[in-house]
Amino acid sequence: MTKETDESIMVPAAVIKRLPKYHRYLEELLNEGREKISSQQLGEIVGVSAPQLRQDLNYFGNFGQQGYGYNVKKLYNSLAEVMGIQQKSNMVLVGVGNIGQALVNSRDFEKRGFYLSAIFDTNPKLIGLEINGLVVKDVVELKDYIAENDINIGVITVPASSAQEVANQMIKAGIKGIWNFSPVDLKTPPNIQVENEHLTEGLLRLSFKVKEE
Amino acid sequence: MTKETDESIMVPAAVIKRLPKYHRYLEELLNEGREKISSQQLGEIVGVSAPQLRQDLNYFGNFGQQGYGYNVKKLYNSLAEVMGIQQKSNMVLVGVGNIGQALVNSRDFEKRGFYLSAIFDTNPKLIGLEINGLVVKDVVELKDYIAENDINIGVITVPASSAQEVANQMIKAGIKGIWNFSPVDLKTPPNIQVENEHLTEGLLRLSFKVKEE
DNA sequence: CCTCTTTTGTGATTTTTTTAACAATAACCG
DNA sequence: CGGTTATTGTTAAAAAAATCACAAAAGAGG
């Protein structure tokens, strides 16, 4: 009955992009105490068509039940598992500047199982400083720290000029994924996953659309 | 010779998404003193195929010259114009929390012509405080400020619970575009442009890809 | 326990996006 | 100043993504 969760079938990037959104809205529904939902209803809430939603979900398994719909809790948990946020993961952050500090202070991601384990910088004025319970370490310790502490995600919030160098060190130390806030497209081997938050690009796209209107 | 810059031909979202990247790499090339470049070469640098690059650019005009390629400076300026960053625009920011403060302090976008004109919050402890040259105003002043000061972009960095309310006020006051950092999909009329920076979604996508590998 | 209704999962179709191919055009060089 | 080469702009083909449509399955109600 259950579809092969085999990696052999490549999941389209467009589908991956929508997964977190499904997860977010399901969380809301769960908090509202909603028990079941149809693809039609969930699609309307999320802003995708019902068939698309069903097709997206079916890349990962058959989570629904004909004549009934989807159980909200079950689907929420299934998606969490698909995205790998059932088992917690540890992160390090390099670059305790503006955005870096904002991330350290907010730690919004901890409630989704992403723990910030240590933070690093090169600036001697910052090293040793405590920010929201974490002491800024010297970036020279980065490589050893990653290797010794089961870290699989690295957050890069350094200026463009040093982003690639930081990424290289993380990769050498065995990191699996990089969450990159530097306005740089990192050069990485294919087994290293990168997700970019190129904020300025977002603003430029907005500007284009505003002008277009 | 020049193609119609008519809005009648809808520009695909996929194309819009790539424009800022082209712009960024052209800026680099310009700084390196590069004078001309072929679609083949630029495509390799940016990471898109040469035909795609040409087709993308041709949505907006014929910027190249056969047998020569593209003049870097000319193309850079043309793209800047396409994206509407030739004329400066003024922004307001609401929500002087972690990310809000980071944006106010860095002001990375000012060098691209986006000026932060005023910042707002509801927290009495923050109102009156000066951050990087800007005094935090009470959010009750928001509507009048926007209406009176030629503001066309609003930055939302408030918690999810108040994001929609802030957006509503901005829209009522006549804003054109919203750069939204709240983990919420804002409900807006079709003439209002929204660009979301849903950071947590990025991290979840990364998690998925890391797990998949 | 049978019929009717709901709603999924999925194969077929349409639309969109990307890639390929090439004719047209301009620079370059002797 | 003409031939050769480079490279665009654009049309056509291929690939990818989204939508449609419907058979199959499960629940609900009598």
TrEMBL record, chains A, B:
Keyword Transport attached: no
UniProt-annotated binding residues for NAD(+): G95, V96, G97, N98, I99, G100
SMART domains the UniProt entry points to: CoA_binding
Subcellular localization, as worded in the UniProt entry: Cytoplasm
GO molecular function, one term: DNA binding
Residue ranges: DNA binding: 21-60
Record flagged with keyword DNA-binding: yes
Gene Ontology annotations of biological process type: negative regulation of DNA-templated transcription; response to redox state
GO CC list: cytoplasm
Principal subcellular localisation of the protein: cytoplasm
Keywords: Cytoplasm, DNA-binding, NAD, Repressor, Transcription, Transcription regulation
Start and end residues of each CoA-binding domain: 85-185
Biological function: Modulates transcription in response to changes in cellular NADH/NAD(+) redox state.
Family the entry assigns: Belongs to the transcriptional regulatory Rex family.
Assembly, per entry: Homodimer.
Protein known as: Redox-sensing transcriptional repressor Rex
Annotated organism of origin: Halanaerobacter jeridensis
